[in-house]
Amino acid sequence: MARKKKRKAEEPSLEFSKANLWFALGGVAIIGLGYYLLGQGSITLAPVLLVLGYVVLLPLAIIR
User: Which of 53, 61, 63 is nearest to 18 (CA)?
Assistant: First the structure.
């Protein structure tokens, strides 16, 4: 019996483009602003910014 060669599945590339960089920088800036506002006592805007940075922008920078 002849052996069949298995084809390699296309591996996703881990190339970071300018869009990834901008999303990452924006995420870090938003997180920094969120922690600054949290230190100032803002209990409404700071958590929103932190969630936006950690849950939306940083994963978007990695995935995109």
Answer: 61
**50 Cβ partners below 8 Å, 6+ apart?**
30, 31, 34, 35, 38
- Rounded CA-CA distance 33/50 in Å is 8
Q: Which pLDDT score is estimated for 50?
A: 97
Summarised one tens digit per residue, pLDDT across range 24-56 is: 999 999 999 999 999 999 999 999 999 999 999
Cα(38)–Cα(47) distance, integer angstroms: 8
Predicted structure pTM score: 0.75
How far lies 5's CA from each of 1, 2, 9, 10, in Å?
A: 13, 9, 12, 15
